Amino acid sequence: MDYALIKKIEIETKFATAVYKNFVSLRFGMDPCCIIDAEAASIDKQLCDWQDKIKCESTCVDEPVESTGYLTSTPYDEPIKSSSKSAASCAPVTYCPDNSVLESILKSIQEINLKLENADLDEDGFVFTQPTDSLQWDIEHNLGKFPNIRLEMLDGTDINGQITYIDENNLRVNFDVAVSGKAFLS
Predict the structure, then answer these.
(1) How far apart (Å, rounded) are the C-alpha atoms in residues 52 and 94?
(2) Which of 48, 87, 126, 167 could be 185's S-S partner, Cβ–Cβ 3.0 to 4.6 Å?
(3) Side-chain half-sphere of 108: how many Cα atoms within 13 Å?
(4) Is the confidence at residue 161, as pLDDT, over 80?
(5) What is the distance between the alpha carbons of residues 26 and 43, in angstroms, rounded to a whole number?
(6) For residue 57, what pLDDT band results from cuts at 50, 70 and 90?
(7) Residue 183's beta-bridge partner residues?
(8) 14, 16, 76 from 145: Cα distances, Å
């Protein structure tokens, strides 16, 4: 059993879960049920990435590199396995990342965010406007499903509320303070 690979997968999974929960919270106003220390997960991931980079630089010297999309690959020699479970904290790297990978990913994310901000809701979506401040919004959307919901104030600031699905066509949002705004359902 390769304990280093298992450890690497656990670190990557914890980081991805923290990022996803943060995204869902910010984008859709849905608070996560379980709190993950995103900062600790990010630090662990950065340490593993740094270890991968060090290993990669030591194996990529004077070797040809073939392009494979966002990443480049190169031959890799498996390091000598240690018998100790705690000797390695991250799995060995099997590719050498291209220096522009992060920039490409960030550019793609920015393009997706721009499309989301400018996109009109399709026929499967519904926009509810609450023009006056209220502690509770009762929304009849008639979508025939339990939709995703994103809440924002009238000035566009994202807000969070306690969402209760009454049935497939109605939901209720409760707030700690009275607020007006919009609910985007899809």
Answers:
(1) 9
(2) 126
(3) 7
(4) yes
(5) 21
(6) low
(7) 128, 151
(8) 31, 28, 50
Annotated domain spans of the chain: 3-117, 126-185
Put simply, whether the predicted model's pTM sits higher than 0.85 gets the answer: no
* CA–CA dist 86, 103 (Å, integer): 33
- Distances from the Cα of 177 to the Cα of 134, 135, 171, 173, angstroms: 8, 6, 18, 12
Task: List phi, psi (to 5°) of 149.
Answer: -140, 140
C-alpha–C-alpha distance, residues 186 and 181, integer Å:
17
Beta bridge pairs of residue 68: 71
Three-state DSSP class for residue 96: strand
User: Long-range pairs for 101-109 at CB < 8 Å and ≥24 separation?
Assistant: 101/70, 101/71, 104/70, 105/70
Nearest to 141 by CA among 170, 184, 180: 170
